[in-house]
Amino acid sequence: MTDTPIQTIEALDSLLDEERTALVSGDLEALDALMSRKSDLIEALRLEAMDLPDEIEPLQLKLRRNRELFEEALAGLRSVADRLQELREVEEGGGTYDGTGQRHALETRARGRLEKRA
Fold first, then answer.
1. What does residue 26 show for φ and ψ, rounded to 5 degrees?
2. CB 3.0-4.6 Å disulfide test: which of 56, 62, 77, 106 passes with 16?
3. pLDDT tens-digit profile of 15-28?
């Protein structure tokens, strides 16, 4: 039995609420699972529900909201990755730039070496 356009709209509406919850809580595994279902529902609506603009408008708002949340989550992940890279560079000795813009590595002492001073 095929869903009616209204049933598809209701299913997508519910799924978008689930997606928002996953985005806000940082549940990336749930997002992955929701993505293919969302794609299928959107495709079904594209084919079935063109005559229901009033019913689709709230979904468009939720889709936009979730996309913005997703973009913010990606920006946060990029920020963390950048910070971790900076920390790795510091552990490896870091570096400086000379007057010509050439990077020069700084040498650090080996990790785990303990120097005892009197």
1. 80, 20
2. 62
3. 999 999 999 998 98
